[in-house]
Design goal:
By secondary structure, the protein is mainly β. The chain contains 3 helices and 12 strands. It has one domain: Acid Proteases (Cathepsin D, subunit A, domain 1, Beta Barrel). The strands form 3 sheets. A 6-stranded mixed β-barrel has the order 2-3-11-4-10-9.
């Protein structure tokens, strides 16, 4: 009886689960649950976690300050790279990137066991798997997390990205980037 019920449930689930079929001409890209991304403005490479449970992507940002430019809402923010080095043996570089972006919108994030948090959302260009993309990022302090970047479904869905939940760094191509040492030297003129 248990086996028969299991087969019926499996058949029902497969009927309602959309899968890429052999007849589907959509070009899907499979990425790992962790991949390298390169922020196009700076050339810095960061580890990103691909999260199918998150709708909007998120970027590590501190000192987030709203301001107005030409009657539009903008935000300035800093991305300290000390917490998110691109290699384990990187020297302490104390590089802090500064950005200014127009505000696309704000979101109210409900957090388990904590107060809800309002966040600014900005568009950012980045490279992953050798391709440049643009997506919206909510700005928040992710310094206590392992990954400075979280990529959500707004990025994955239109770009036909499938996520392998058991693998990381599955991207077939890399993006050009600068190391933290190169960025630090560029900023100090060395």
């Amino acid at each position: 009886m248990k086996t028969g019920l299991s087969l019926i449930l499996a058949a029902l689930l497969s009927a309602f689960t959309p899968l890429a079929s052999a007849d589907d001409d959509t070009d899907y890209e499979t990425l790992g649950f962790v991949e390298w991304v390169v922020l196009q403005d700076s050339g810095v490479r960061l580890k990103a976690r691909l999260d199918t449970g998150a709708k909007t992507s998120s970027l590590h940002a501190v000192n987030v300050e709203p301001f107005e430019r030409d009657g539009e809402d903008w935000v300035s923010f800093e991305l300290p790279l000390d917490d998110h080095k691109d290699s384990e043996d990187a020297e302490d570089t104390h590089v802090v990137l500064q950005f200014e972006r127009p505000v696309e919108r704000t979101v109210l994030i409900k957090r388990k066991g904590a107060e809800s948090q309002r966040r600014y959302v900005v568009n950012m260009d980045f490279c992953i798997a050798g391709k440049t993309h643009e997506t919206q990022f909510s700005l928040t302090d992710r310094g206590r997390f392992h990954y400075g970047v979280l990529l959500g479904r707004r990025f994955m869905a239109p770009d036909n990205v499938l996520v392998s939940s058991s693998d990381s760094f599955e991207a077939g191509e890399e993006c050009d980037y600068q190391t933290l040492e190169e960025l630090a030297a560029e900023r100090t003129g060395d």
